[in-house]
Design brief:
This protein has helices at 2-11, 16-22, 27-41, 45-49, 59-62, 71-114. With 115 residues, the chain is an all-alpha fold. It is elongated, with a radius of gyration of 33 Å.
């Protein structure tokens, strides 16, 4: 664990608690090992607990360039999606109408039985 602490902390961003869980140790054992590592390196234990931060990337470097969009193709796909949606709404409306007719039939049958 001592040999892997720096790698686990800096590369995998694991906390001492997560490192303790990985090695099935108590977190105080990890802090004790940290103190030993710090003493050998001549640094403070707190300096070993600092989470490294990646360099910030500029907006231009974070995103790939935007590819041109074929508007005709986009419009065709959008229209096809809208047509499919309209078709789905029509099927739902038909199911609702069928359910309402069935419900009305049941009400009429119930009234006929009661009279």
């Amino acid at each position: 664990m001592k040999a892997d602490y720096i790698r686990l902390h800096t590369e995998e961003n694991l906390t001492p608690k997560q490192i303790a869980a990985r090695y099935d140790l108590h977190v105080s054992t990890v802090y004790g090992c940290l103190q030993e590592i710090a003493d050998r390196a001549g640094v403070s234990r707190e300096s070993l607990l600092i989470t490294p931060r990646a360099k910030h990337l500029t907006h231009e470097r974070r995103f790939d360039p935007v590819k041109p969009v074929d508007l005709t193709n986009f419009q065709q796909h959008a229209q096809a999606t809208l047509d499919e949606f309209d078709s789905t709404l029509a099927v739902i409306a038909q199911h609702i109408q069928t359910a309402e007719i069935q419900q009305q039939c049941l009400i009429e049958e119930e009234e006929a039985w009661l009279s």
